[in-house]
Request: fold
Amino acid sequence: VLDLGSTDGDLKGFEGGFSDGTYGYLVPSNNGQRFGKVARFDLASFSSVSVLDLTSTDGDLKGFHGGFSDGTYGYVVPDNNGQQFGKVARFDLASFSSVSVLDLGST
Reply:
């Protein structure tokens, strides 16, 4: 059992996840409130939990539903951060940082 809560008490209430072959990524949704912390863990050891707080880049980046990877970046699908929203977050898989935002509502 991998207890994510022992790394960060906010790590609960995910909606989907994906893998890049080395790490598993869990998509943040609602842990009693909308949150934006992506959890990453090592698949081989089933340990080594890391956290990327998307709200550090943009306060709207919370409440996602699903995600995917293109091999270089991870993407999380916007759903509800207190209201329906359209900001897709992208982060670098190798560094587990470098968050970019695509605001579909402004296109």
